[in-house]
């Protein structure tokens, strides 16, 4: 059985370590290994995790480029050896530095064939400091990507009195598929977010894909100087069964030509000739191998749904391209 991996990200000072400390005290996170990626010559964040033991590791600095992949691979391979030797590790949590682009970590978790046999990406939790978020999102593209790829967004420091309504609207525009939760959210709302539970109960498709608000074609009115004017999300739905070859060929073309623009892609597909749903999941140039779930959830309409979170790529471009490949098939 694969071990779930949760990625906790968020900009500097958002409260990632505070959240991690709280979660690790909960019985649901017993036997959790913690990996911490600290930026700088000397790592300090690992000293703030109260439940330090021999399953807590510090990843080497390097979060601003893909060198983190080697460090993460090495750390996860070490955990693999521990698991295979009998050490009880039921879950892995990775806390990134506030300056981290989450894409390299997601690439490693989704593309390394050795790691895929042992680990599965369970979800991305992004913390947002409500007192500084609007300025942070304006000034730092990393913060935007952290919010855009999230499965769950947690607002922190709301007790300091900021009006969060404009921030909530902005985050909903940026990533309408990620529920926005309070800082005291229970583990049940933050764990088991992914579709890759092959040996567990059937995941709830709606729970994974997130808010149905993505079905609408949103018309945002951001300040043109904001970075997030370039990032948006949309959902495409197809009622008729699709061919996997058409979808795969289109995504291969899109990755080749516009891979950098694909911040995150999720899809659950009704494939011709299959009575079970197929799940796809991608980040930029990397797509997880397709997975066939055991069955459709009760009451699901069995439509194919794609969720795209993109940068400088229009819905019309994606929709026309996918339609052309479907028609050709």
Keywords:
seven-stranded parallel β-sheet; 10 helices; alpha/beta; Rossmann fold; Hypothetical Protein Yjia, Chain: A,domain 2; 329 residues; six-stranded antiparallel β-sheet
Strand content: 15-25%
As for the CATH topology of the largest domain, it is Rossmann fold
Distance between the termini: 36 Å
**Which class of secondary structure composition applies to the elements?**
alpha/beta
Q: What's the arrangement of strands in the largest beta sheet?
A: 3-2-4-1-5-6-7
The CATH top-level class label of the largest domain: Alpha Beta
Order of helices and strands: EHEEHEHHEHHEHEHEHEEEEEH
The CATH superfamily of the largest domain turns out to be P-loop containing nucleotide triphosphate hydrolases
Low-confidence stretches: 39-52, 60-67, 211-225
Shape: globular
Say how many strands there are: 13
The helix content is 25-40%
User: How many structural domains can be distinguished in the coordinates?
Assistant: 2
Tell me about the largest β-sheet: 7 strands, parallel
In the CATH classification, which architecture of the largest domain applies? 3-Layer(aba) Sandwich
The radius of gyration is 19 Å
Q: Count of helices? A: 10
Instruction: Average the pLDDT over all residues and give the rounded result.
Output: 80
Protein name: GTP-binding protein
Domain CobW C-terminal: 231-326
GO molecular function: hydrolase activity; nucleotide binding
Organism: Plastoroseomonas arctica
Concise account of the structure shown:
The chain is of the alpha/beta class. The protein has helices spanning 16-24, 68-84, 103-111, 113-116, 133-139, 141-148, 165-174, 205-209, 244-258, 315-328, and strands spanning 3-10, 32-37, 56-59, 91-95, 119-129, 152-156, 180-182, 231-238, 262-269, 278-283, 286-287, 291-292, 304-311.
């Amino acid at each position: 059985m694969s071990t779930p991996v949760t990625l906790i990200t968020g900009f500097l000072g958002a409260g990632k370590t505070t959240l991690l400390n709280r979660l690790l005290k909960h019985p649901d996170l017993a036997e959790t290994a913690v990996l911490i990626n600290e930026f700088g010559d000397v790592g300090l964040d690992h000293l703030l995790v109260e439940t330090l033991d021999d399953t807590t590791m510090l990843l080497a600095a390097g979060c601003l480029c893909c060198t983190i992949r080697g460090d993460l691979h090495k750390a996860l391979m070490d955990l693999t050896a521990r698991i295979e030797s009998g050490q009880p590790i039921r879950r892995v949590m990775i806390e990134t530095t506030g300056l981290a682009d989450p894409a390299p970590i997601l690439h490693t978790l989704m593309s390394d064939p050795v790691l895929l046999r042992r680990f599965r990406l369970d979800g991305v939790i992004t913390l947002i400091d409500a007192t500084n978020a609007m300025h942070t999102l304006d000034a730092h593209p990393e913060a935007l990507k952290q919010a855009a790829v999230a499965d769950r967004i947690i607002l922190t420091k709301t007790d300091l009195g900021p009006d969060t309504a404009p921030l909530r609207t902005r985050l909903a525009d940026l990533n309408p598929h990620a529920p926005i939760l309070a800082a005291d959210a229970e583990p049940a709302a933050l764990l088991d977010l992914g579709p890759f539970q092959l040996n567990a109960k059937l995941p709830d498709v709606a729970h994974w894909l997130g808010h149905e608000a993505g079905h609408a074609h949103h018309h945002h009115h951001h300040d043109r100087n904001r970075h997030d004017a370039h990032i948006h999300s949309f959902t495409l739905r197809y009622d008729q069964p699709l061919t996997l070859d058409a979808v795969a060929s289109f995504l291969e073309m899109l990755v080749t030509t516009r891979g950098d623009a694909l911040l995150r892609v999720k899809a659950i597909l009704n494939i011709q000739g299959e009575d079970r749903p197929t799940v796809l999941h991608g980040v930029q140039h990397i797509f997880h191998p397709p997975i066939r779930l055991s069955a459709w959830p009760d009451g699901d309409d069995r439509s194919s749904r794609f969720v795209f979170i993109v940068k400088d790529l229009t819905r019309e471009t994606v929709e026309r391209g996918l339609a052309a490949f479907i028609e050709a098939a």
